[in-house]
Amino acid sequence: MNITIQQFIALVFVLFFIARLWQQKRLKQINSSEFSFWFVFWLLAALAILFLRRIDALVGNFGFSASGIEVLLYLAVVMLFYFIFRMRIRLARLEREITKLVQALAIFNNKKE
Amino acid sequence: MEKIYIVIPAFNEEKTIARVIDDILIANENFQIIIVDDASTDNTVEIAAKRGVKVLRHLINRGQGAALKTGTKYAIMKAADIIVHFDADAQFQANEINDLIKPILKSETDIVFGSRFLEKKSDIPSFKKNFILPVARLFNQIFFGIKLTDPQSGLRAFRASAMKDIDWQQDKMAHCSEILHNAHKNNLKIKEVPITVVYYDFGQKFSGGFAIIKDIIFGKFLK
Q: What does CATH list as the number for B4-124+153-169+182-203?
């Protein structure tokens, strides 16, 4: 399989992120499910880079004029939107937890007075 | 005699809080007042405390819905029979609390909402009256199937025992819609009574309506 210099650089990046992920798991900074999710994500990214020409052909078969790398970019944007949404949900959940603490403290501090 | 608690969330209301407390006690000296200070930076707490009413303090600002819930929880801890939600900005008329709680005292209903659109005339800013509030009414009708004349009213009274059915999670202004929705969903007896609202400023803007819709949508994903 011939790979271009751009593909090679992209693969080095992916390898770097997988190595970092492995290190985070080893230091117990992330849990198993988070590790699995990101590991599969980077693995798919590496496969997409390796088989970019196949993706080009696949996209062509579906009748799209865009090349494979463009489709990957579109997918990346969709995924980014999804991650932002997930972060907003997590933030809203944290806000709710903070409110519970503030409410409990208001009543607790009143009891102390 | 029924124990009636008036819960008032307050955020930087030093100009009006004393008048609101005094007016409520003139309306009925047996009303128990709980001020929930939502981390004011002015003298709201000092002024309220001088009036001898209960003041609970949020260490950081959490919004009107959260402050109402703190006060409501406290009132329930104190074995309240009826809980009234009131505003600290002097827009509501304290003597109308008596009209509000009457249907509950007569065991006709579980929850009563004050309405600016019944017999009494409130001087509502025209954009709010003719656009913002009708849109809010339509939103509540379409998405929650609730037909009330004033679904965004902040003046309400309910039996303390109804809290388990209306318990709201929204910290900010979306609590109005959530309380109404929960009351409707749990088949509580709902009634509206006419109230008068005096507007000193515009209050919630159109952008606030979008924030409410956004909070309701996000709230759905948190359950």
A: 3.90.550.10
